């Protein structure tokens, strides 16, 4: 349970930018407002729509029947899987890398399965890995097809510097408040990079009246994207947790008909909320204005494409990468400027490299830990 919560925390911290980075970057929402909205939308999406994809993660990657005679071995394997996934995602978040939490948990389960019974344990066909990998690689494509209309940055994050707050921060409760709100008091919009300024200068600018029309619907699409993220990514932590809980409760390996307990969904949804509220600002800096110039109209186009893609995939049981979707959408919107130099290709390369590393890194962590515990020398009683 601890590792599943840590995995959910890492997902919230790493993936919150997928939903609200464009809204904050364009000035439509402040970081505090975005976090307050996301806490509710992420939880609702995870709790009410997360069950189907959780089933795919828990039983659709490896052949669980191989553990039929040793269900406790599968319990150990799922525990090491969430450990490997959580470790990698939290590490990547600390480095500012927007990794795919979906790939992370898939890689961790693959690594555990190979360490347990070899390559044959993994479902490599379209009923397992091929289906998931195809969806992850293919999902960014549709987003650039959504027409973007443009806009300028409007609002700015205000810094609080009055004397009363300085006095409050010196008291005990002031220090507690400062620590609790640390994650939502960060400035994620400032641009000190001349290279980024030149990239933004190449983007087409439109009058503020036109852009103002998109602020409200951009917030709506951000909420939809956050709802979709919660429904899709909660499976990454809930899938292994539900398998462990089922084995503990019944002493049997779960099958495709095994239902996910509601408290499993709620537990991990809370972890996602805490992660995004306390550490989500890190990735907002990366996916905000660092890929291309972001305005409410551009953010609306990107988030609408992302949310439609993820909700559809979630309903048919395909766990897709929200990171891939929003990054592909942002690149597609940037290309609508008609200038290749309006996109920060260096940042896109960092994102792509982090995706490539994620699968083997999480798999190695999970597989090695599983092998050390399961196959270490034991004293016969």
In short:
The chain has 17 helices and no strands. By secondary structure, it is mainly alpha-helical. Helix 6 packs parallel to helix 17 and helix 12 runs parallel beside helix 15.
| Percent range for β-strand residues | under 5%
- How many E strands? 0
Q: pLDDT under 50 segments (min length 5)? A: 138-165
Radius of gyration using CA atoms only: 21 Å
What is the residue-averaged pLDDT? 76
Large-scale geometry: elongated
Distance between the termini: 30 Å
- Helical proportion? 55-70%
Number of helical stretches of at least 4 residues? 17
Largest sheet: none
What does this structure look like?
The chain has 381 residues and is mainly alpha-helical. The chain has one domain (1-137, 184-374). It is built from 17 helices and no strands. α2 (17-26) runs antiparallel to α3 and α3 (31-49) packs antiparallel against α13 (262-279). It is elongated. The two termini are 30 Å apart.
Question: Any descriptors?
Answer:
17 helices, single chain, elongated, 381 residues, 0% strand, mainly alpha
């Amino acid at each position: 349970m601890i590792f599943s919560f840590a995995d959910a925390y890492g997902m919230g911290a790493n993936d919150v930018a997928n939903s609200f980075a464009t809204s904050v970057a364009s000035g439509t929402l402040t970081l505090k407002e975005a976090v307050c909205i996301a806490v509710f939308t992420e939880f609702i999406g995870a709790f009410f729509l997360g069950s189907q994809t959780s089933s795919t993660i828990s039983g659709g990657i490896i052949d669980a029947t191989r553990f039929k005679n040793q269900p406790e071995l599968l319990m150990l394997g799922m525990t090491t899987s969430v450990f490997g996934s959580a470790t990698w995602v939290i590490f990547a978040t600390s480095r500012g890398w927007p990794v795919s939490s979906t790939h992370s948990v898939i890689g961790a389960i693959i690594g555990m399965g190979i360490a347990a019974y070899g390559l044959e344990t993994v479902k490599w066909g379209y009923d397992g890995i091929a289906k998931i990998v195809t969806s992850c690689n293919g999902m960014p494509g549709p987003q650039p097809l959504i027409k973007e209309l443009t806009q300028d940055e409007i609002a700015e994050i205000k810094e609080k510097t009055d004397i009363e707050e300085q006095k409050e921060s010196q008291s005990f409760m002031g220090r507690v408040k400062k620590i609790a709100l640390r994650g939502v008091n960060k400035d994620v919009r400032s641009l000190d990079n001349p290279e980024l300024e030149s990239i933004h200068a190449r983007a087409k600018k439109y009058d503020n009246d036109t852009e103002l029309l998109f602020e409200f619907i951009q917030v709506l699409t951000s909420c939809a994207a956050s709802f979709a993220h919660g429904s899709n990514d909660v499976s990454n932590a809930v899938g292994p947790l539900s398998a462990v809980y089922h084995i503990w409760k019944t002493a049997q390996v779960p099958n495709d008909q095994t239902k996910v307990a509601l408290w499993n969904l709620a537990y991990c949804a809370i972890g996602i909320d805490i992660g995004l509220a306390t550490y989500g600002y890190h990735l907002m800096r990366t996916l905000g204005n660092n890929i291309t110039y972001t305005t409410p109209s551009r953010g609306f186009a990107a988030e609408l494409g992302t949310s439609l893609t993820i909700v559809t995939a979630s309903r048919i049981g395909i766990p897709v990468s929200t990171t891939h979707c929003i990054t592909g959408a942002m690149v597609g919107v940037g290309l609508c400027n008609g200038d290749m130099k309006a996109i920060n290709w260096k940042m896109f390369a960092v994102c792509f490299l982090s995706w490539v590393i994620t699968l083997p890194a999480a798999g190695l962590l999970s597989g090695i830990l599983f092998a050390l515990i399961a196959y270490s020398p034991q004293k016969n009683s």
